[in-house]
């Protein structure tokens, strides 16, 4: 969605957005009771249900991101020298946003004296 973040962090961001959206809808629904009294109860019930669905979607997104995180390849970022997780063949560092790849054909900044595995980081076992 926003482009300059790792894939796992993007999934977590979507989970956070769904959480905030759901909570906002539930608060808005509760405001219907305050401002409209008895007529606002139907308004509140509708917005509470929609907000709860958004909250459940956020739980599903967070669960999915957690499951992806457990199977992600861990490597050392060549820029910041921190352990980071990578999904797929290309991703970004979770900390410094450096583009990383496991495919030597996609690595662009290879010097003559460096091998492809030194540039993209060593996968940890």
UniProtKB/TrEMBL annotation:
Indicate yes or no for the key word Transmembrane.
Answer: yes
Q: Which superkingdom does the taxonomy of this entry point to? A: Bacteria
Fetch the Pfam families from UniProt.
Answer: DUF2614
Q: Give the start-end ranges of region Disordered.
A: 105-125
Chain segments annotated as transmembrane: 12-36, 42-65
Keywords, comma-separated and alphabetical:
Cell membrane, Membrane, Transmembrane, Transmembrane helix
NCBIfam families to which the protein is assigned, alphabetical: PRK02935.1
Name of the molecule in the record? YgzB family protein
């Amino acid at each position: 969605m926003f482009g300059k973040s790792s894939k796992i962090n993007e999934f977590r961001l979507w989970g956070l957005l769904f959480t905030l959206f759901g909570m906002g809808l539930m608060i808005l629904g509760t405001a219907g009771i305050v401002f409209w009294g008895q007529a606002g109860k139907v308004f509140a019930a509708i917005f509470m249900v929609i907000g709860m669905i958004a909250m459940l979607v956020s739980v599903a997104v967070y669960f999915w991101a957690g499951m992806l995180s457990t199977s992600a390849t861990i490597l050392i970022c060549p820029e910041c020298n921190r352990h980071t997780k990578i999904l797929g063949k290309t991703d970004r560092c979770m900390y410094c946003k450096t583009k990383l790849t496991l495919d030597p054909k996609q690595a662009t900044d290879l010097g003559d004296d460096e091998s492809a595995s030194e540039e993209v980081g060593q996968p940890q076992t």
